[in-house]
Amino acid sequence: MLKIDKLNKTFAAPTGDVIALDNIQLQVKKGEFITIIGPSGCGKSTLLKIVAGLDTDYTGAVVLNGKPVDGPSIEKGFIFQEPRLFPWLTVEKNIAANLSLKDPIIRTRVTELIELVRLTGFEKSYPRELSGGMAQRVAIARALLRNPDVLLLDEPFGALDAFTRAHLQEVLLDIWQTNRTTMLFVTHDLDEAVFLGQRVIIMNPRPGHIRSVQPIDLPFPRKRSSSSFQELRHKVLSEFEKVEEPTIDVGAGI
Amino acid sequence: MQVGIEKSVVTPLIKKKSRVKNRGLSIQVSNALLSILLIIWEVAGALGKLNPILLPRPSTIIREFVSLTASGELAMHLGVSTWRALLGFLLGGGLGLAAGIWVGFSYKTERLLDPSLQMLRTLPHLAIAPLFILWFGFGEASKILLIAKGCFFPLYVNTFLGIRSVDGKLFDVGRVLQFSHWQMITKLIVPASLPNIFLGIRLSISVAWLGLVVAEMMGSSTGIGFLINDARSFSLTSVVFVGIIVFAIVGKLSDSLVKLIERRMLRWQDSYKGEGSS
């Protein structure tokens, strides 16, 4: 469904070119939940931006549903680290954005989505009246309204407190299980990666490359305290300990 | 499972009440100060301490105001002045808005137009007025154009600034949601620069009144500016005061009107409104 082949990306820097992504190979099946984890500077966000079509300066191939990615489109929903809502629009209008709420189909879908992200009662609120977690849920609903083939999430819960984060992880799993949207979720939080992903892509920096892929064969809902969860968590963690600079965020999640 | 309701706005009722009371109090204090000043002025005038030609008593000014209103003279002059200010504002402000949008959108246009426009901006009304009279005569055209020239720049500068300060991160959102070019303008750039545009409108309107006085004093037989100038040459100081007061009231009213519209349209804004506002 999503195929990334021999993807290379270099940044021009005054001290010479920096290789941001080195020969990335990845295939994502329809409906799969992939988490990408790695320390800062490993190129995980760059990879996501390329898949989104926000960055087209690369070599190699990124193919979604048989079509090469050549720019941003609604087939690739993108959730930024910050909610990035339009401050002048209410919650429901933010979700609709450039679509008209007067259209009965859109209207029904928006109402459904507000229910799905558990924001019923806040339809007419402005972004300034929302907490960080609520705002991020609006952003998720905004992407889902466009029925994306794949949802790209760039550390979406990174700025939230631990409780809100755990709650939103559950909301997201809920959405995934209801809609079966393919998810590509970038994080720097080990527990989050293992808790959400069916496969965890482990990336390392200098140059940014995929170090290994760890399948997580645990059924949902997962229990963080279970021994099998802890075992897999250790397995992923050990991949990082081989690197001299363990900048990964251990235990920031719950 | 509702997380984050704690942040929704729940202002304690008691606090709000005391705030309203406070505001009422400060208005009373400012009114009292003004009344005391007027009383001192009136008494000093009645005692003959003030030269009535330079500083007529408030009661004289009020009497003059009433008689000018009763004769319909004031309304006629005000009507003419308002019409000129409005036309000049619409013309200059409209062009300023258009130019601001145009220059704001394109770096090329900015480099092409902005330097010359900035140069024109610094030219004072009084320096330009003789030229306008030479070109367009003493008629309405020169007056309206002079006002328009003043109104152009505040809207131009602020619209341009508003467009350039749109959060770049929201552009990425627009791209991801596949906004068309037109939607980028109407759904993103215009609403985001609206606070600046409103500031420009308010500044333009005050400049319109300013330009009006200059225009009407240059040569005119109607308008509040003429009324003031004419009264001055006959040493009718109380009429000059009436003219000034009318300008002050109309200026304040027009500004309040825009502010009201602004508050309606920018309800989403989350900025510091100052200590003691509710």
Automatic annotation (TrEMBL), chain A:
Domain of life of the native organism: Bacteria
Entry-linked InterPro entries: AAA+_ATPase, ABC_transporter-like_ATP-bd, ABC_transporter-like_CS, ABC_transporter_ATP-bind, P-loop_NTPase
The keyword Cell cycle belongs to this UniProt entry's keyword annotation: no
Any Pfam family matching the protein: ABC_tran
SUPFAM superfamilies: P-loop containing nucleoside triphosphate hydrolases (SSF52540)
MF (Gene Ontology): ATP binding
Keyword annotations of the record: ATP-binding, Nucleotide-binding, Transport
Nucleotide-binding recorded as keyword: yes
Occurrences of domain ABC transporter (ranges): 2-232
Listed PANTHER family: ALIPHATIC SULFONATES IMPORT ATP-BINDING PROTEIN SSUB (PTHR42788:SF13), TAURINE IMPORT ATP-BINDING PROTEIN-RELATED (PTHR42788)
Protein name (database record): Sulfonate transport system ATP-binding protein
Taxonomic lineage from the root: Bacteria, Bacillati, Bacillota, Bacilli, Bacillales
UniProtKB/TrEMBL annotation, chain B:
SUPFAM superfamilies according to UniProt: MetI-like (SSF161098)
Positions of the ABC transmembrane type-1 domain: 78-258
Domain of life: Bacteria
Pfam (any one): BPD_transp_1
Keyword field: Cell membrane, Membrane, Transmembrane, Transmembrane helix, Transport
Predominant location category: membrane
Subcellular location per the Swiss-Prot or TrEMBL entry: Cell membrane
Statement: the UniProt record of this protein carries the keyword Transcription: no
Keyword Cell membrane: yes
TM stretches of this protein: 25-47, 85-107, 119-138, 144-163, 207-228, 234-254
InterPro entries recorded: MetI-like, MetI-like_sf
UniProt topology in membrane: Multi-pass membrane protein
CDD domains xref list: TM_PBP2 (cd06261)
Family to which the UniProt record says this protein belongs: Belongs to the binding-protein-dependent transport system permease family.
Name by which UniProt lists this protein: Sulfonate transport system permease protein
